[in-house]
Amino acid sequence: MSHVVSEPETTTRERVLNLVVQRGPIRAAELAAELQLTSAAIRRHLTALEEEGQITVRPEVPVAPRGRGRPAKRYIATTEAHTNLPEGYSRAAVMAIEQLRDRLGEEAVEEFADRRADELVRRYRKGVDSAGSDPARRADALAELLSKDGYAASTRPVGDGLAVQLCQGHCPIHDIAAQYPQMCESETRAFSELLGVHVQRLATLAGGEHVCTTHVPPGVPHVPTPSPDRDDMEGN
After folding, report:
1. d(CA 176, CA 170)
2. What is the pLDDT of residues 45-86, one digit of tens each?
3. Which among 57, 99, 165, 232 has the fewest CB atoms less than 10 Å away?
4. What is the assigned CATH class of domain 91-216?
């Protein structure tokens, strides 16, 4: 069924979708509170987005026995939603990398991915450093910077609240990363360098998940292994 909506209604629906992309899996009540909408209004937008194929429901698995009643629903963005969001690279970029690989081999693709990672570090270093030395605060700063570049990024605490997960609801290079996992691997390396800890990539949009998820541990220093001192080597 096609929905004809006014401009303010469309803008609100886009805000709902963007928040699902950033924070999903997320419940209707959380969306309503964040966007200051009534329960009826948020459910109207969620229903429309479901019908358009932009979002879907992921039932919440309770960690403890529940009473009677329906389990809580959490919403996530679909592949269709990610496809409709603005992309930073076109099909032409994929074809260019394919040609690079065919002519120069996989090493050339890895070098390209590493150069992109280096550029991420250069681009975000100053903003992340301004957040101080705490990895969680640095992750918050990185998420904000990534969001400005179209990654729909956010952070959420996990475990005892000291560790965080850096989530990217959108990937501007999704088409490339889906074919060349080197892009995700080098990006993870860049995040480790920026945050100052050894991070772990748990899930990726390119791998079919609804969000890219990177685990950021609480203050475990990521220090490069120093090269052996020349005098020590000669002494041995």
Report:
1. 13
2. 988 888 888 788 876 555 445 555 566 688 877 766 655 544
3. 232
4. alpha beta
- 194 CB-near residues (< 8 Å, 6+ apart): 120, 121, 124, 125, 128, 138, 142
Phi then psi for 175, rounded to 5 degrees? -60, -40
CB 73 within 8 A of CB 27: yes
Instruction: Quote the CA–CA distance of 232 and 185 in Å, as a whole number.
Output: 35
* Angle subtended at Cα 127 by Cα 77 and Cα 130, rounded to the nearest 5 degrees: 125
- Token pair for residue 188? 């993870």
Q: What is the rounded CA–CA span in Å between residue 182 and residue 112?
A: 9
Instruction: Note the pTM of the prediction, 2 decimals.
Output: 0.62
Each residue's pLDDT tens digit, 145-154: 998 887 888 8
User: Per CATH, which fold does 7-84 belong to?
Assistant: Arc Repressor Mutant, subunit A (1.10.10)
Does residue 153 contact residue 167 with C-beta atoms inside 8 Å? yes
Q: How many CA atoms lie within 13 A of 165 on its CB side?
A: 18
The residues spanned by each domain of the chain are 7-84, 91-216
| Tally of helices (H runs) and strands (E runs) in the chain | 10, 6
Q: Give the count of beta carbons closer than 10 Å to the beta carbon of residue 175.
A: 17
